[in-house]
Amino acid sequence: MSEIEHVRGDATTPLGRGAEAIARVPDDIGGTGEGRNAVTVHDHGGGHVTEQDIDVLVLGGAGVDTIVYVPELPLPYRDSYPIDSGIRTRAGQTGDFTALGLAALGLTVHHLDLLGDDPEGDLVRAFHRDHGIALTAVPQPAGTKRAVNLVGPDGRRLSLYDTSRSRPGDRLPENTVRALAARARHAHVCITPPCADLLPLLRETGVTVSTDLHDWDGVNPYHEPFAFGADIVFLSAAALDDPETVMRDIAGRGRARLVVATAGAEGALLLADGELTRVPAVAPPAPVVDSNGAGDAFAAAFLHGLLDGEPPERCARRGTVAGAHACTVPATEAAALTREELLARETAAGPAPSIP
């Protein structure tokens, strides 16, 4: 394959006229040979291409996880453990689940990342096809990103990331990124390689940008381009002794106008216009079984509210509703809230008190 193709259902047809800007395969994505330079677009949910027909462009974070439910965390050393619930490999890393959450809420989503020509890549492609999410896949000779998630009885997670599935020279094609960003209202950038290099390019296009730093400790320099290069920054407070200081540092040193730190059962902290507000947690609608994807669900619901024109406090409230729901869904399943469900649960939970 030597050009981008538009794949819908079982039929393969050329991309529509509106996508001519990304119908040329750039020469700057590295490697040699037709297979390396072939970029495939899988559009499973849309019709014709028009200007700004993408609500959110998600960059990076496509991969597979192997889920193992363990009797406790940390797991004491033993020669072996029987895993009665099974050990399951499924598509869905941070970019995949953020895209899923956004799409379930009724937004038009396009996902761009590197994928291997391997069984794991096939799982990711099938995930997007099954959920009607458009996917642009850039070939990755090192293979599709993968991880092993150990999940304890209380839903806590320990993730083991396979960093061998990336290479120092990996890049996403700039022409493709520019063309997709020109069609998007917003871009959400995952912290997986090679997305840090895309932040200056996205700023040039004028699209607003969000990112999720996950459990950043406030020190690791890897996260800094994301923390200081995005307009909206999500992170977990799990590794932070003083979340407020880190949040204010992000806003002070970078571009962020909104910084949100999720804190599990304690809710979330929102920094907007220099004011820090605590948003209480929402009670989960069922027993907590798995925290996988809770942060992605929070970010998706927050962005949905923001694109709907809601104030940041209400966006954060919706985030807590979606995050609580995600904790009740096993990581082996993909069951994001719809817009109707989100709004109904937000109403049932009542207005969030504003607590400085």
Automatic annotation (TrEMBL):
Return the Pfam families for the record: PfkB (PF00294)
GO molecular function list: kinase activity
The record's PANTHER family line, in alphabetical order, gives: RIBOKINASE, SUGAR KINASE
The protein's name:
PfkB family carbohydrate kinase
Give the superkingdom in one word: Bacteria
What's in the keyword line of the UniProt record? Answer: Kinase, Transferase
The keyword tRNA-binding appears for this protein:
no
Q: Does the keyword rRNA processing feature in the UniProt annotation?
A: no
Question: Which residues are in the Carbohydrate kinase PfkB domain?
Answer: 234-334
**Source species:** Streptomyces thermocoprophilus
Recite the lineage of the species: Bacteria, Bacillati, Actinomycetota, Actinomycetes, Kitasatosporales
